[in-house]
Structure formats: C-alpha cells, structure tokens
Amino acid sequence: MIKSNLAILMKEKKITYRRLEELSGIAGETINRARGALIYECKLSTLDALARALQVKIKDLFDEV
Fold first, then answer.
1. GO terms for molecular function, please (predicted)?
2. pLDDT tens-digit map of 4-49
3. Where does residue 14 fall: left (phi above 0), alpha (psi -120 to 50 degrees), or beta otherwise?
4. Which pTM does this prediction carry?
5. What is the Cα–Cα distance from 12 to 38, expressed in whole angstroms?
C-alpha cells in the first residue's frame, strides 16, 4: 500500500494548491487525488511534475506502508 506525502510536503514548503498548479502545470483535481489514497493512479509524468515543482525526488512524494 502507498501513502501520499504530498500534503505534508506542500505544508512544509508553504505551497498552496493554486501555486502548485501554477508551478507544475497539473490540474487541482489531480493534485487533490495525489494528496490522498489515489496517488497510485497518477502517471509517472504527473508525479515528476509535482516533484519538480516541490523540488523533491519522486520517491519523496509517497511512502510504502
């Protein structure tokens, strides 16, 4: 099972949904899914864009539990 760290990373970096949308080019609805249990449904390109926008590695976006 995979647990999303996106909400934690956004809080740590003080980045809002809107700002993350701007930085990543990813729609808010997709960001919302990636923040929750549906992160496993995200394409690698989506995870890459989010990671780049947050200046982290893709593997930092989630934990295996």
1. DNA binding
2. 999 999 999 999 999 999 999 999 999 999 999 888 889 999 999 9
3. left
4. 0.92
5. 21
